[in-house]
Every structure is written in structure tokens, then in C-alpha cells.
Amino acid sequence: MWHKLQENPPYFLLTTQKNGYEVYITDYVTIWFVYLTNDGFLTCLQDSNFGLDDETSKLIKNGTNLLLNPNELRNLNIAKDESSLQVSMTKRFEYPLKIKLKLSEGCREMFFNKVTHNLLRTVIDLTSSQKELRHEMKKKDREIDAYKSNNHARYLKTERFNDNNHMERHSIFKESGDLLTTPESSLEKIAAAASQKEEMVQENLKSLKIKQESHIPMESQSAPCLTSSSIKQEPKVEPRDTSISPRKKRKQLLNY
């Protein structure tokens, strides 16, 4: 479920738990995300609350509660740059608990899956509900008319449901035209294709990150030791004696 973080500018938070924690934030235009393993989530909480001495299980429980129910945050700070979003959230438990996250900008397929898809499904469901309610209202009117025709309840104050007036008052959906007429089965196929593309993009990002990190020497990756057998021995060259002049050398050779 999406939760409102703030109204102006609008930011919304979605947290899911599968194999770890998936955190998404959107402002209706862009989506940002961060994936944390269970161990990564614990490390994030410990780094965000330096010096906090609490049981691991309790820390994880409160941290999970913070992400899943952010409606009672004590402090919230959001900083946006070109490709990332840095968020700091604090919630009061027996003590103030903080979590600091750096989220990367997601692809358009991710935005569709996490935002657009859900909004379209909601609109389709509401449209279906509206049709059912209108049908029931018209049915009730027919029953009331039949009741009145038998000289019962002639003076009922219930007014007839005016379907035309109702639809005129709620006409915004018309602006979307056929955009909202996509069958749910087709919508699910689009979502599945977008999910597959999103996974490919994420895998490419992970691979790129691993390649970039491989160029950075780690402390544990020291240079291999060189043994005496692996060192190439260069032949010794006797130093050249430059104390005898060329003329004297020539004379010595002639006399030889």
C-alpha cells in the first residue's frame, strides 16, 4: 500500500517484503527505489542510529514498522538530485528511531508497474462499481413505481434517481476516453511484459555496478608476492673502462 509522506511537494512511499526490503518513493512523475537484504536492512538501521543499543530482533521490528506505517513520522527530510533521492525518516518508539536511505531513479517500466498499473486497476474497479450501483438505483426506482401503482406509499419523499444528472456531475473520466476501456486481461499482459523489462534493467544496473567496483582495488586484494624464481634475471654487463683514450687504444692494437 502506498502511504503519503508529505503533501507539498507530494511524495508517496511503498514498502514490500519479499526476499528482503523493497522501498519505492514517487512524486507522480518519477519513481526512486532501493533494495535491501535482511542483513543490509539491519546494517542500515545500525548505521542510521549510531550508538543505539537495542536487541537485533526489536530493532528490525521497529524499523519494519517505520517503513510500513510512516503516517506518524516525527521528522522527515527529502533531498533530490539528478538521479537519486536521499531520505531520512524518524519515528518515535520507546526511543527515536531513524533510517537513512539513498534511492536510485527507476526506469519507466518500474513506474508503470508500481504506479500507473495500480491506478488503472483502481479506476477500472471503480467504474465497474459505479455501473453496479447505478443499475441497483434504477432497479429500486422501478420497485418504488410498482409500489406506488398499487396505491401504496403515494407520498414517499424518495426522489427518483436521475442517471443523466449523476453522470454529468461525474464526467471527468470521459476525458480519458478509451484509455480506461482496456480489458483487465490485456492490462495484466502489459504489466507482465513491463515487469520482465524492469528485471532486465535492474540486472544490467547490478552488473554495471559490479564491473565498476571490480576496478577499485580492495584492501584484501593485495598484489601477489614475487618469488626469486619469478623474477627475471638480467645478464650482468661489465662496466666500460673509459680511462684509456681512443688514440692510445688504437696504438696498442697496432703494436699487438
3D structure, described in words:
- It is a single chain.
- This protein is 45% helix and 20% strand.
- With 256 residues, the protein is an alpha+beta fold.
- The protein folds into two domains: 3-106, Beta Complex (Dna Repair Protein Xrcc4, Chain: A, domain 1); 110-202.
- The chain has a seven-stranded antiparallel beta sheet.
Low-confidence parts, pLDDT < 50 over ≥5 residues? Answer: 217-239
Gap between N and C termini, in Å? 105 Å
Biggest sheet record: 7 strands, antiparallel
* Widest β-sheet, arrangement of strands: 1-2-3-4-7-6-5
Q: Which radius of gyration do the C-alpha atoms yield?
A: 37 Å
Query: What average pLDDT do the residues reach?
Result: 78
Using the alpha-carbon principal axes, give the shape: elongated
CATH class of the largest domain: Mainly Beta
Helix fraction, binned, reads 40-55%
Output the structural class: alpha+beta
* SS field, number of helical segments: 6
Total number of domains: 2
Number of strands: 7
Which sequence of SSEs, written as H and E, runs from N to C? EEEEHHEEEHHHH
